Structures are given as structure tokens and as C-alpha cells.
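Subgroup meeting minutes
Present: P.N., E.W., G.H.
Scribe: E.W.

1. P.N. recapped why we're keeping a running log of single-chain structure predictions: easier to compare across weeks, and new members can see raw inputs and outputs side by side.
2. G.H. added today's entry (316 aa).
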Amino acid sequence: MDGASLQRNTIIGLVASLVLTGVKLAAGIFGHSSALVADAIESLADSVGSIVVWQGIRVASRPVDEDHPYGYGKAEALSALAVGALLLVAAIWVVVKAFQEFFTPHSAPEWWTLLVLVVVIVVKEVLFRIVLKGADAMESDAARADAWHHRSDAITSAAALIGVVVAIWGPRVLGWDKLVLADEAAAMIASGMIFFTAIRLIRPSLAELLDAAAHDLAERVRVEAESVEGVRLIEKLHVRKSGRGYLADMHLHVDPEMSVAVAHALAGKVKATVRQRLPKIHHVLIHVEPAAGMGSGGDGGGNAAGGAVEQGIGVV
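Output recorded in log:
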């Protein structure tokens, strides 16, 4: 799985969402279903979201350059944040529309709208599983947001299906005409699900954009770094997410009588070890310092690591 595969999955999802949006909107209008119309609007938000994700993944796949030495990974977080915002807007719109329909006299939806909803649920669930599998493989928040967009669409369609069933058969079987409003009730319930899905997408995106610390991964980096012979202590270790990878910064304490050349080589070995054992780490910056209370602490005539040596490695 690579960036091209993620983009392909996104494009497939986009085309499917556009087709389903048209089908649901037509079925909702001609089948007199408020839930289907609201579902179509949510699918339209899906389509726009897929376009945003596609562009985010495309930008994030660019190689590092002089102006962006850490790459373009945060483009994915920005696109995931935008998708979450779109879902919030869609959720609010569905609630407002359904609330208006509660006070507007209308007939029950047509029976054939149920068939449309069943097809939509199946297609969207399949898309969710395909896109999520690729997103998890590539650690892509943007693709993961796109996958959950498909799942949220399947959820709203499932809620609409229940509402339409009750709206169609409830008045006939139970003789209670008010059950025709189950169509709108289902739309409002679905909007709540969309809202929580949006929050689920927005939180990790904001965390990445604000450079939140990845504490669990940092501890794993510490263990691997301190396992290298010659390392006395690892401190001031920070790990943060950027796109599909993580960036690590650390202070490496070594024997103060170690020469600069040897300390430099040790730092390179630490970086290689960390990146080999933890492939998620794409960039490592190491600041070498003399370990306190060890050796003479002198500079060995200018050959010791008494002055800190800073060394970094770019994304490969």
C-alpha cells in the first residue's frame, strides 16, 4: 500500500459517493422521504470531503524540499480537519431540515425507497472497509477520515431505512398516523451519529496540527535508543506525528571523554537503530551532550564531546 493506492481508493469513493448522492436525492424527492433527502445532503458532504482528502493525500505525498525539510505530511491532518468540519455542518443541516418537516403535513414515503437505502448501505459499508484498511496500513489520518465518512453515510442510511419502514408501515399496521414522522425522527438520530463521527475525526487532526506528544511511541524510542552500546542517557525526548510518520527529537548523553568523531558516529548508530526497529519514525534529530559526573569532563584538547554536537537525518 502506498500514496498512489490511497489516492485511488479516495477517487473510487468519490465517484461512488457522487452517484449515490444523485440516486438518493432523486429517490427522496420523488419518493417523498425527508430522511433520504437529508441522507443525500450528507452524501454530498462525503463527496466534497473525498475531494479534500484526495488533495490532502496528494500534497502529503510530495518529497521533502528545501522549503519543507520535514515534508508535507501535515496536509493530511488539515484535510482530515476539513472533512470533520463538513460533517459537523451536515449534521446541523439534517437537524434543521428534519425539525422543519415535523411541522409540515406530508404523506408517507414510497415503498421502493427502501430498496434504494439497502443498496446504499451495502455499497457504503464496502467502501468503508476498503478505504480504512488502506488508511491503517499507511497511518493516514486523512484516508481514515474519508473511510469514516463512508461509514457515517452508511449509518445515516441505516437510520433512514428504519425510519422509512416505520413511516410506511406504522400507520397501516398500528393505525397511528403520527408514525409517518418516524422518517424525520430517523434523520435527527442519524445527525447525532454524524456529529460524534465528526468529533472523532477532528480531535486527532487537531492534536497533530498542534504537535501533541506521542508519549507511548516516545517510550519505545527511548528503549531502543538506550539499548545502543555507548549511550549513557536519553533525555528531552519528544515524538510528534506528521502525516503518515513521526518526528523524534532527543538529547543523547555520552562519555564526556569520547571524541567528537566517535560521538557523531554513535548518534548515527542510534538513529539507524531507532528507524530500523520503529519504521513509523521518519525523522530523528539528536543533540549530543557529555554525561554529567563521568570522566574528567575536559575537552581532551578539543577532541572531546564537551561541546554539544547536533545531528539530524531527513525523511527517507
